[in-house]
Amino acid sequence: MFAREKDAKQKSDDRLHETVTPHADLAGTTTLLPNPTEKPATISVARVTAPAPIMPPRDNKNEAKSDTKRLIVGRGISLNGKISFCDRLVIDGKVEAELEDCHTVEVTENGTFKGAAEITGAEISGHYDGSLTVRENLLIRGSGRVSGTVRYGRLHIEDGGEINGDVKSIASTKT
Predict the structure, then answer these.
(1) Owning domain of residue 9
(2) Residue 54 lies inside a defined structural domain of this protein
(3) Are 39 and 69 in the same domain?
(4) Is 123 among the domain residues?
(5) Same domain flag for 65 and 30
(6) How many domains does the chain fold into?
(7) Tens digit of pLDDT for each residue in 5-43?
(8) What are the DSSP calls for 34-79, one per residue?
(9) Nearest to 99 by CA among 53, 63, 134
């Protein structure tokens, strides 16, 4: 009788085999599929969650000084209005705004800014349209397009970058 129970259990175990799906969005998922030679009675799915990553301790003093006023507008996000007192603005979406008391702006390749800004530094890889005054460095990357009224302290344009409109050095506007 013991041999019969063992044979019955072995036959039922042979019906299923395990496969692991390599897709990133299904990571940690194990699916039990039927053996192709037999008809399955049931198919069961088990989900295993990965442990949370261990984060290193933060240095809150340095982080508070450097990133306290950082705003990131992500891809697919649209923001309209007035942005004030921002140390660093990163635009990967669409922003129509007036910047007031902001320090630096980065417009990524996917980003679009329309409006007015008077800032210390800017790096444009996407599109900027409007009034732009950069007291120090204005960097236009190869994929960057700037149009409108532009005033700058120092101007750097990579191959392929474009600037159109009323463009003047701040030094030349002081005389």
Answers:
(1) 2-47
(2) no
(3) no
(4) yes
(5) no
(6) 2
(7) 444 445 444 444 444 444 444 444 444 444 555 554 444
(8) E-TTS--S---EEE-PPPPPPPPPP-HHHHHHHHTTEEEE-TT-EE
(9) 134
The reported pLDDT for the residue numbered 73 is 94
Contacts of 40 (CB under 8 A, 6+ apart): 15, 16, 33, 34
Question: What pLDDT digit, counting tens, does each position of 139-170 carry?
Answer: 999 999 999 999 999 999 999 999 999 999 99
- CA-nearest of 80, 83, 81 to 70 is 83
Above 50 in pLDDT, residue 47? no
pLDDT of residue 69: 86
| Threshold 0.85, pTM exceeds | no
Nearest in space to 142 (alpha carbons), one of 161, 163, 155:
161
**Where is 1: in which H helix or E strand?**
none
Whether residues 67 and 27 share a domain: the answer is: no
**Tokens standing for residue 127:** 């599109």
Residue 159, domain member (yes or no): yes
